[in-house]
């Protein structure tokens, strides 16, 4: 079966922040020299999509400050449209710090409480240029920021595309294609109960869910891959691509069979931050080209692996030519017996 994401704009809504990444290894508290860039899960996916030939629409709120100017400049550098950027004169753009590590995940510190993006609300939906939007990608980060962001995500997920604007191969429930990456950030939520409730709600609304195996344990109560994909399907998801680390992913269309897709081997991981966003960009770009879910998962594995070779959250995301070269020259991983 081919995908259902058409070759039109993919809308991504989330927070963009200034990022200060330590240039040297060590604790974040001791870092004194930083490389400045821009980060944000949904923005990373948008940049990845653009480099792979898509024309995504990134929606957020920014303050009237220097960080906002830098974010706008980054979008322009990456040839991304800015018609989804809303300005908030009452709040500042968020920022974050990130350590550098030799292995594992770097430490991060966020300064985003009360940020402009946290003021997104259902009132902003009418300001979004939905013309030619046929797919929406959300993550679990945005609804964690505030009550208004949670209602914004609920309303956005429930919004139907205007009939006749786009043609879908086989849309679920008669609307646009909705993909959802849980992207758990427990520290951002008021409590664990609200986090699980809201993320399960979005999983149930999605045509495609992109959880990690650890996220599956929290959201559906198991880290057994086969049982996890079944439980996401029972929630209401139409398809699931379950990420199992560098080894690869399980793909299941909920009305069909389950398939294992191996990952790509890299000699040394520099930074894992942004790899999941790269994975999502790879998957969605392939679906927009009419690829199958299995083919999309393979591309996602490749883009995610490439992103681990960069300290930046998005500067290492590949062009189509770079992606093709990587997939031709890198070995696939081997699944262990207990996976």
Description of the structure:
The protein has 339 residues and is of the alpha/beta class. It has one domain: UDP-N-acetylmuramoyl-L-alanine:D-glutamate ligase (3-Layer(aba) Sandwich), CATH 3.40.1190. 32% of the residues lie in helices and 20% in strands. The protein is built from 9 helices and 13 strands. The strands form 2 sheets. A 9-stranded mixed sheet has the order 5-4-1-8-9-10-11-12-13, sandwiched between helices. The longest helix has 15 residues. The radius of gyration is 19 Å and the shape is globular. The two termini are 25 Å apart.
Features:
UDP-N-acetylmuramoyl-L-alanine:D-glutamate ligase, disordered N terminus, 20% strand, alpha/beta, 9-stranded mixed sheet
Strand content: 15-25%
What number of domains?
Answer: 1
**Number of E-state strands:** 13
Characterize the biggest β-sheet: 9 strands, mixed
- The unreliable regions are 1-7, 160-172
Shape descriptor reads globular
CATH class: Alpha Beta
Q: Which fold name is given in CATH as the topology?
A: UDP-N-acetylmuramoyl-L-alanine:D-glutamate ligase
Give the secondary structure arrangement, pairings included.
Blueprint: E1 9-13, E2 17-25, E3 34-39, H1 41-51, E4 57-62, H2 66-77, E5 85-87, E6 95-100, E7 108-111, E8 133-139, H3 147-158, E9 177-181, H4 192-205, E10 208-209, H5 213-220, H6 225-235, E11 239-243, E12 248-253, E13 258-262, H7 275-288, H8 293-307, H9 320-329
Parallel strand pairs: 1-4, 1-8, 2-6, 4-5, 8-9, 9-10, 10-11
Antiparallel strand pairs: 2-3, 6-7, 11-12, 12-13
Helix pairs in contact: 1-7, 4-6, 5-6, 7-8
């Amino acid at each position: 079966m081919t995908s259902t994401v058409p070759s039109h704009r993919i809308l991504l809504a989330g927070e963009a922040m200034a990022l200060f990444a330590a240039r040297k290894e060590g604790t974040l508290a001791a870092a004194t020299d930083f490389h400045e860039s821009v980060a944000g899960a949904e923005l990373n996916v948008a940049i990845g999509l653009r480099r792979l030939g898509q024309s995504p629409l990134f929606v957020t709120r920014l303050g009237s400050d220097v960080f906002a100017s830098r974010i706008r400049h980054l979008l322009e550098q990456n040839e991304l449209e800015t018609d989804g950027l809303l300005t908030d004169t009452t709040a500042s753009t968020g920022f974050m710090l990130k350590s550098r590590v030799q292995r594992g995940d770097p430490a991060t510190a966020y300064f985003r409480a009360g940020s402009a993006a946290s003021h997104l609300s259902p009132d902003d939906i009418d300001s979004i240029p939905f013309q030619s939007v046929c797919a929406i990608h959300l993550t679990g980060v945005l609804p964690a920021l505030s009550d208004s962001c949670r209602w914004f995500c609920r309303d956005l997920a429930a919004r139907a595309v205007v009939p006749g604007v786009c043609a879908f191969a086989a849309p679920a429930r008669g609307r646009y294609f909705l993909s959802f990456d849980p992207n758990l950030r427990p520290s951002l939520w008021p409590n664990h109960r609200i986090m699980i409730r809201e993320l399960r709600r979005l999983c149930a609304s999605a045509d495609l869910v992109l959880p990690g195996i650890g996220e599956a344990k929290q959201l559906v109560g198991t880290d057994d891959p086969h049982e996890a994909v079944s439980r996401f399907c029972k929630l209401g998801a139409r398809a699931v691509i379950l990420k199992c680390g560098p080894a690869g992913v399980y793909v299941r269309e909920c009305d069909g069979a389950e398939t294992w897709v191996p990952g790509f081997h890299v000699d040394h991981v520099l930074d894992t931050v942004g790899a999941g966003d790269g994975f999502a960009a790879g998957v969605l770009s392939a679906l927009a080209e009419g690829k199958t879910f299995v083919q999309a998962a393979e591309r996602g594995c490749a883009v995610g692996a490439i992103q681990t070779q960069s300290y930046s959250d998005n500067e290492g995301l590949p062009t189509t030519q770079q992606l093709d070269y990587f997939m031709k020259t890198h070995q696939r991983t081997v699944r262990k017996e207990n996976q």
